[in-house]
Amino acid sequence: MPSEPTELELFRDFLIEECKSEKPPESVEKAVRKFEQTQRLKAMLDETAAEAERGEYGPLDIEEVKRGIRERFESAKQHQ
Length: 80
Description:
Number of domains: 1
Number of helices: 3
Radius of gyration: 16 Å
């Protein structure tokens, strides 16, 4: 059974794909920051999917979703 990829392997794969894109990373720091954001998003999506599979979900509160997106956007802008 194959083992889970290491963080370094995930980062390598991420960099390969980013460098193929039309707008590759401008710096190592920006690439690391984008990788970390991507990993956090994937973790959130995995947790959300697991909660849904367990039936742990409720009605969608669109205002809460928009508030969360705004907060993340502002936080990301501050770190650039």
